[in-house]
unspecific monooxygenase (Eumeta variegata), 512 residues
Amino acid sequence: MLFVAVCFLIVVLYWYGTRGYDYWAKKGVAYEKPIPFVGTALRQFTQRVSLAQAAEEVYRKYPNERYVGTFLGSQKSLVIRDPELIKSILLTDFMYFHKRAVLLQETVTDPLARNLFSVDGDLWKLLRQRLTPAFSTGKLKAMFPLIVERAVKVQDLADEAAKIGATVDVKDLMARYTTDFIGACGFGIDMESLEDENSLFRKLGRRMNIITPRDAVVFMLKTLFPKIFKNLHLIAPEIENTVFHLFETVAKQRNYKPSGRNDFIDLLLTLKEKGKLVGDSIENFNPDGTPKVAEAEMDVELMVAQVFVFFAAGFETSSSSSSYTLHQLAFHPEEQKKVQNEIDDVLSRYDNKLCYDAVKDMKYLEMAFLESLRLFPPVGFLLRSCTKKYTLPGTNVTIDKGVSITIPVQALHLDEKYFKDPEKFIPERFNPDRIKDIEKCSYLPFGEGPRACIGERLGHMQSLAGLAALLHSTRWSRRPTLRHPSPTRLRGTQKEGYLCIKGELEELKTTY
Ligand code: HEM
């Protein structure tokens, strides 16, 4: 009897752990073979590869496919290899793919997870509409003096180090610069991260960039059993508490009213004063096809979640892309010289003062930055989720609501089909005359379409300003004994690879 019960249990467990695993086979789609419960994601769950690396591996393994099926636990996912199809998903057929579905549960219990990056549907649309003005050209120009102030400080630090021939940990330096800038532009407070490497904000930035065993376990449980573990918070309590504390402190100082500083917290407080967020629904329609009205309350939790994403999405992306640019220039002295000559030349036309227009004129620096983003995209893959039945254009494959889409950005950027000598650092690829030759949707460091990065220009301009300040006065070199690390080798494992500027070694981490 016991034997029969055990056998029955095993059969039930096996059925439960493999349900839906014939999905891609039934549709005639090439797919990775899943194992019970974890699907094709065992190494992602155990933190042996990042999600970006896993997508890159699938991309390389199936060179002749336009798309490949995988399973993240029981979640069906399609890795899209073909830029034409990527264009349909991100742009043309956006109405089928407006969700990112990073949270696999319908009701969000994590207060900070109600941020623009993670939410979907009507709340995403309402927030995106209301937050977009915070990133306009006017706002960017208005905050530029704050950026320049930080850029000058970072330049002073580098000058000091250069005078005594000291080594500089560039990743840390750029992280402190970015932290200070986010503090000033986002929160209107001086974070002093450049003076004090243990400032509250710097600590917060460091913690956000680490995946602790607790974070890994929570991610796995929430992905495998979203309903059972719906009340677990994806974002660690220490991060949650610090961000709430920070927002409360600043908002209280301002009497919960806009202070006229025009920073991000002011924008949120202004939105709160205006009352409910109201707009057209992206999900619900009247019988005549017109959109229903969607509403959301701008409560404190929703504001804090947006403050969190300003930091979480803006910090590591900007600091890693600017430090990788310096890293590449240290390995390519000729290109570095070209960048420096350009900076000197442009600044001489602007009274040797860094300003918005001067940075805009630094075309070669921008090309070097874009090329570094190609080699080392801080966000290695994009996510979308199918919102209603969709037939992949040019095929007879129809995917269902809830199927997740992975766009392997990192892999596309290193495919020689789209970039000749993909492992080489060649800023000229992004020469304005040649940029049009790059195949649409094969280069996606900021994503594409209505859900592309909202902070692209801000991230871009503040990274260039920091780089211009650092390269204007200092020549950057690597420790001579170090081999040139190729992007593939750096990504070999999460811990392999070193950044070496002026002799300092630092481990590189994959962001996503
Ligand atoms: C070099 C710097 C940056 C890079 C490479 C970058 C990259 C990205 C990428 C790839 C996405 C996903 C796009 C998609 O799914 O199509 C994204 C989304 C986002 N980024 Fe950035 N980002 C950068 C800087 C910033 C900054 C400075 C901020 C804000 C201060 C920011 C805020 C966001 C937000 C809120 C989203 C979600 C947008 C939405 O879903 O509507 N990013 N970013």
